[in-house]
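Quick start: load a record and inspect it. Here is Cobalt ABC transporter:
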Amino acid sequence: MIAAPGHGRDSGRPRSPLHRLAPGVKLLALAVSGTGLVLIGDWRVMAAALVPVLLLYLAAGYGPREMLRQLRPLMWLLVILLVAQGLMESWALGVLIVLRIAILVLMAALITLTTPTEVLIETIERLLTPFRRFGVNPAKVGLAFSLALRFIPVISDQARQIREAQAARGLGRNPIALALPLIIRTLKMAADVADAIEARSLYDGDEPPDDRVRARVVSTETRTSCLNASAPETSSISPSSRR
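Running the structure step on this input writes:
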């Protein structure tokens, strides 16, 4: 899936040309290639499109293992899509859709792996500045993008906690028992973060915040709200399991 922000595991890697490439160029390439993928109607051509993606990962200092790691959280979704499309339409269409989603995810993940989060957000805000006259607030879009990136590891941790609770209750690997509480927790965390931002009026007006305000919103508010959201459910597991 989309890589966690900061990509701290890259600290010991030599910076590749892809790391040094301007974020705006990467985003433009993602938009153009994504449009091209939508126009492809043959699954064999789509499968061939995996080759340049693999070459890009190798050029950035990664490889097939990193590609699989990025796709692992989506495996069940891709399998469900493949089976559903195969039974309702055709297996060729199912393979085409699954490959298209996988390639888009891999390309987006490569951008987050090779670009610092702060630089990526600043680039997005800068690209959206001309649309301010149409009512678009670049600062708020940047905040939403930043929160989305930082929620990825939080949601993964929530899923791990729910799976551990399922194992303690003897529920096995029931996907519905995982999906429902995960969706509820995610929505609650999102509501808590929105309330925290609104209560502190950190984003009133159209002017973008400085780096200190953005850091406070992204780190402190997200962390405390996520802890508050997850505390009741995790604490309620232990008493029942003891009984």
